Amino acid sequence: MAKSDAPPSTLNVTSYLKAAASFERENEGLRRQVAGALSTTVAGWANVALDDITITHLSGAMTNVIFACEKPSSPNKKVLLRVYGPGTDAFFSRGEETLVFQQLSEREMGVGLLGEFDNGRVETMIDGATCTAADIRDPLISTKIARKFRAFHDVNVDIDRHPRILKNIHKLFRDAKSKVAAATSISVDFDAFAEDIGTLETMLAAVPSPIVFCHNDLQYGNIMLSSKTDDVVFIDFEYSHYNPRGYDLGNHFSEWCYNYHGETPHLGDFGAYPSVDEQRAFCRAYLEADGAPTAADVEALRTEANTYALATHLFWSLWGFIQATQSTIDFDFEAYAKCRWAAFQTRATLRVE
């Protein structure tokens, strides 16, 4: 990783996020900032003419702002530049996330780190395409995701191995209650939410799930289809840590209900949750690393995933309420939060029969 003696730069993307016109035409200043950050942090990017750099905003990210950057020649011809969203340190430790990122990169489970600046970093780009909402429903791709999940869950990462989901939900509950109280435009019945957390704890206690290293945010935008290996690659490990296995699988199942590039990206279509047959196929592919699973094994894993999916609704609901008070990303976080909370209350994803 090459770094100059110049102090790290901070990229201000707020003006870009608020601009309706094209990035190239209306945000020349930000183009210069991006080029400057690349020139001081990434080998091969010093003294590249601004006109020779192609910078494309990748939509769909809800925590950070991400740009694909390309220049005419190697090394590091194509890179990914990630600008951290404001206030996101409320959700995870940046220091731990960088440690996880590096360890997974060493194990060839993710992408490489090329450089860092004050409020972001630069990563290698995978040759291939990001999954779409339709892709993760494709049986062949879904099978690859299930098998990659199993390999991911077998990785040993040198961080605290205690499960965090309930601890994190309680923390986000306190944070959301405080932030929403200061933002008078948002109304949430936190007494009712506290009761739902208690209900969730009782439900999870009845369904044991092994503790493994989890991605915790495997939506379609965090899955790449590699053109080199014809396999899937998981990316974006900001929320990754040890958790019950069922939480990771249930979170992915719940993400089948969202299209972040559709007309209503903040609203889930819970009729699109994997059918019983689709769940069985996924769970069977996941378990096949240990040989042919029994029908009972498959059903037990389905129960895990469907039960812990309820925990994902409360976690992302609280996340959404917090983001509604602080994020500059163009997304209806409040409506998203209320949709996820409603999914918990109606048990919309609890398909166990």
UniProtKB/TrEMBL annotation:
It holds the Pfam family Choline_kinase. GO terms for biological process: phosphatidylethanolamine biosynthetic process. CDD domains: ETNK_euk. GO terms for cellular component: cytoplasm. One of its GO terms (molecular function) is choline kinase activity. Coiled coil: none annotated. SUPFAM superfamilies: Protein kinase-like (PK-like). Belongs to the choline/ethanolamine kinase family. This is Choline/ethanolamine kinase. It comes from Saprolegnia parasitica (strain CBS 223.65). The lineage of its organism: Eukaryota, Sar, Stramenopiles, Oomycota, Saprolegniomycetes.
